[in-house]
Specification:
Blueprint: H1 3-12, H2 26-34, H3 40-45, E1 48-50, E2 59-63, H4 65-77, E3 81-85, E4 88-92, E5 95-96, E6 101-105, E7 109-113, E8 155-158, E9 161-166, E10 170-172, E11 199-204, E12 207-212, E13 215-217, E14 222-227, E15 230-235, E16 238-240, E17 244-249, E18 252-257, E19 260-262, E20 269-272, E21 283-289, E22 292-294, E23 323-324, E24 332-343, E25 348-352, E26 357-369, E27 376-380, E28 395-409, E29 415-418, E30 425-437, E31 469-484, E32 495-509, E33 518-529, E34 537-546
């Protein structure tokens, strides 16, 4: 028995619990529960469209795609309603959502993505295929293939409004491609093969969306991909997957709350602002709060509650983070992240490398443990993946980060804030930060290369020359009440500043045993005060100096 089959059986043993009274009228529940032979018409009068009444078997072997779609279409034709999935296993290829339709997965209901065609085959399970990826060649060069297509998914919609997916059931992307496999040397990703599905939920140019309470296991390239979707509430989801958990791309007015995402091979919660819509649209007014992101647990073990960690010899990337970027054409404006937990993954990343205006971001109340990169990564770069002549270096400014604690940050990496020679990160304030780096590194480490037009990721910078913060091409930086407490002695400085203008450090604590807490190169307007890490000092211009 596979790990996924074992998980599914455990999940289904919970049975079908009663629906919450607030979900549907009591009379509707009585019809659905006490009248198994009630006609679809009678249920429809109550606003409920039970997929079994439209021919779904829920046996996990028979394709239920047509029956599920018939129930959705009937609800839409009636002006709206609830498409109900009672307990069972519903095997399906692509499902098209409609306006005013509410999908509800009852406890014990599992919607399973049927197996995609294998390399060299034209059809998948029982002769079925996923909808073809729509033509989008004009924009393919500006973001990865998966960001450009929505129809090749288990659940998709385009240009609809006022709809929802709720319930405590499960969406299992068993037959989806995660976009990493290849058919052979030099042949495109399997995800690009016709008939292959590679996303659990993909929505484009929609509005007024609610996603609540369900779980996703193995969601393909994206568990959830939202592109150009406005007025979104995502609440209390559990996502246990082998690529991205959720991508929020070119979306506005979004709330992500109370979610758990385990995504060892890619990002957990990832706002983006790509060029996939054919124009630059910012991701704006986004709140992410009370979420747990991780990249250290074996696939499926967060959902089944066993929480088994990967062993070091498994060589898992442990990505699992919250990141704005990498796709960053339109911008990120008014982003708030609060009350989140990171474990066994990378830290926060804020990235503008394709012309985005990344502005007005607050991050507060974060706990981190056992990271694989530094707690914070801010990158302003010039990859400029976008239409020629229309894409120029963006901004990264007005960033406030406070109340962060991190235990066992990796020895090799400090936090990295870096712009490029002709474009600085601006107006960054950090306060009330406590970080315990692993420490233990000895010797002098050279400054990382600029690599201003490369893919932005902390791993690409290599070992940093400081164990706490590497700060390059910044203007207007303030740090107050920041403590660095290496778990082992480290010969590198705590802070390395390169091409920084106007930096204030107040109430800084770090070991002074080596006498090299601050390494300064081409720094102007520096002030250090009331700190245990260094004596009070004000310097107008420093070419090279150690404090």
């Amino acid at each position: 028995m596979s790990q996924f089959d074992a998980f599914r059986r455990s999940f289904l043993r919970t049975g079908a619990a009663s629906l919450a009274a607030a979900s549907f009228p009591a009379a509707s529940l009585a019809v659905a529960a006490s009248s198994p032979r009630a006609t679809a018409e009678k249920l429809g009068q109550q606003g409920i469209f039970d997929v079994r009444q439209y021919g779904a078997t829920g046996d996990g072997k028979t394709l239920d795609t047509r029956a599920i779609q018939a129930a959705i279409d009937a609800a839409a034709t009636a002006g709206g309603g609830v498409v109900l999935f009672p307990a069972g296993s519903y095997l399906s290829f692509s499902i098209h959502l409609k306006s005013f339709v509410h999908l509800h997965l009852m406890q014990g209901a599992t919607l399973i993505a049927a197996d995609s065609p294998q390399p060299g085959q034209s059809t998948g399970y029982n002769g079925g295929v996923y909808d073809a990826a729509e033509p989008n060649t004009a924009w393919n060069a500006f973001q990865d293939y998966g960001h450009n297509h929505w129809h090749n998914s288990l659940i998709w919609a385009e240009e609809i409004h006022d709809f929802s997916i709720t319930g405590t059931g499960l969406i299992w992307g068993r037959g989806l491609s995660n976009g990493r496999g290849r058919k052979g040397d030099g042949v495109p990703f399997i995800a690009e093969q016709p008939g292959v599905g590679n996303k659990a939920i993909a929505l484009k140019n929609c509005r007024n969306l609610l996603l609540r309470d369900f779980s996703i296991l193995k969601g393909g390239h994206f568990g959830i991909l939202l592109t150009g979707v406005d007025n979104v509430t995502i609440d209390n989801l559990k996502i246990d997957t082998d690529r991205d958990g959720m991508d929020i791309d070119c979306c506005q007015n979004v709330r992500v709350t109370n979610c758990t995402v385990n995504s060892p091979w890619d990002d957990g919660i990832c706002p983006k602002s790509s060029y996939a819509l054919g124009y630059a649209r910012p991701t704006r007014n986004v709140t992410i709060s009370d979420c747990f992101v991780t990249g250290c647990y074996q696939l499926g073990t967060v959902l089944d509650g066993s929480f088994r960690k990967y062993a070091p010899e498994d060589h898992i990337p442990h990505t699992g983070r919250i990141k704005c970027g990498t796709e960053s054409n339109g911008g990120f404006i008014n982003i708030t992240i609060a009350n989140c937990i990171f474990e066994g993954c990378q830290g926060y990343a804020l990235e503008s490398v394709d012309g985005a205006l990344l502005e007005d971001v607050t991050i507060t109340n974060t706990t981190m443990r056992d990271l694989v990169t530094g707690p914070l990564f801010l990158r302003l770069g010039s990859r400029l993946r976008g239409p020629a002549g229309k894409t120029q270096v963006g901004t990264l400014r007005r960033i406030l980060i406070s109340n962060l604690v991190c235990h066992n940050a990796p020895a090799r990496f400090g936090s990295i804030f870096t712009g490029i020679p002709n474009a600085s990160i601006e107006d960054v304030k950090l306060s009330d930060i406590y970080i315990e780096p692993a420490g233990g590194v000895s010797g002098v480490i050279a400054d990382p290369p600029e690599d201003e037009n490369q893919y932005p990721d902390p791993n690409r910078f290599g070992e940093t020359p400081s164990y706490g913060f590497y700060l390059r091409h910044l203007r207007n930086l303030e740090m107050s009440h920041v403590e660095l407490a290496p778990m082992l002695p480290d010969s590198r400085p705590a802070f390395s500043l390169v091409s920084v203008d106007r930096a204030d450090f107040f109430g800084i604590t770090a070991p002074r045993a080596q006498g090299n807490v601050f390494a300064l190169n081409n720094v102007t307007n520096l002030r250090i005060g009331w700190s245990r890490a260094a004596d009070d000092i004000a310097l107008a211009n420093v070419t090279s100096r150690i404090l």
